[in-house]
Amino acid sequence: SEAMQAVLPDIDPVLYPKMVERYRYHFLTKDHELVLFKGVREMLSELSQQGYFLAVATGKSRVGLNRAMNAAGLLAMFDATRCADETFSKPHPAMLQELTRELGQILRRTVMIGDTTHDLMMATNAGASGIAVEFGAHPVHQLQACKPIFSARTIPELHAWLLENA
What we know:
By secondary structure, the protein is an alpha/beta fold. The protein has one domain (about 35-165): HAD superfamily/HAD-like (Rossmann fold, 3-Layer(aba) Sandwich). Helices cover about 45% and strands about 10% of the residues. It has a 3-stranded parallel sheet, with helices on both faces. Strands 1-2 form a two-stranded parallel ribbon. Strand 3, helix 6 and strand 4 (about 130-135) form a beta-alpha-beta unit.
């Protein structure tokens, strides 16, 4: 409901619970349709093999994330995950703070890769670096306004940048 209020501030607050319920219903019914962009699995595997910690900070519920990750065969690839029903929603820094603490890392050496301004603002709010991917939810000009350290147009471009700069 907090996210709905941020996105739709002019809606009567009494409608938020029903809107959240409908959103969750439609979101969860699509979990089995999760399709990875070409090259994502290989990129994650290579980064993991090189010793990088991989984590997920998501607006999904724990049930939704586990269902989606299991359907895609990715759950075991990640070292830690944090969901919106477990802590504060993006752009609050709590998800990244908790993940880095769990993994024994420091925020200034952490990157958040995201396709929304909420992702990039969370990185900034936490003291981490944000990397934008230009093929997701928010328009490129909105992502650029968040001043990411890099903006990837494609998965191969993101993969190459991470290998060179991570």
